[in-house]
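ugh ok fine here u go
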Amino acid sequence: MSNFSFIQITDHHLLETEDKLREGFSPSHALRMVMKHIAENTAGKADFIVSTGDLVEPETHETYQCAVRLLGIRSRAALPGPQKVNVEGLQDYPMYFLPGNHDDRQLMTHYLFPDSKAPDLYNLTFVHKDVQFIFMDWGPDTKACFFPETREFLRETLQTDLPSVIVCHHQVKRIGARWLDAFLADDIADFWEIVVKPGTKEKVLAVLCGHTHITYEEEYRGIPILGLRSTAFPFARADDFQILLAPPHYRYINIQNNILTSRIYKVPI
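structure:
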């Protein structure tokens, strides 16, 4: 049985330079403060960080160059990683990256994993201490799309005997905010049909999501669904677009004896 911890962060929306603002927020400063909090409070107890998408916005050479500088990425790691980050007290700290709808898969690979060939979709897996992590890519659009190749990838990877954590950018269930719920895949029922199949469901420890910029804990047929507030600018859980003035979150996750639990840290900025 496995026993380890890791950290989830999401939706950083980094700009061309660290001093630029979006919606009145400084995405670079906020991410630095999150990484500083991790370095000072949880990094020593966790094995790695996973970012669940939207590293930059817009997706340009300049924004990815800014991201690489901010995170202090110097290694030549290959996909799926981890990369090593050096920022705000973290030294060669392992970090995994899943793209979001605002990420360009070609540019992201070029700057973060320059020795790797860019996949059309980041449908990737890695195993850590006998737990399989499934990175599934819902595509580059705001609205999720369950591509045939992703469908087959998910079906095949869940045939393992290992306990698994599914890691997504897009949400996988309605969260009660009309404008955000419109981004749910039209065929989301097909996703859940694969995941809750008898003999498979028992191996899925949780689904981690970003995209909505909202922290939530839901479930579907007993499978935990964990959403997370953006490090850049949080949204309100409301029917219409609203931005909150609120501290960024990160999620500290522990897996012990194939049971996944987590807690949320608020980061003052």
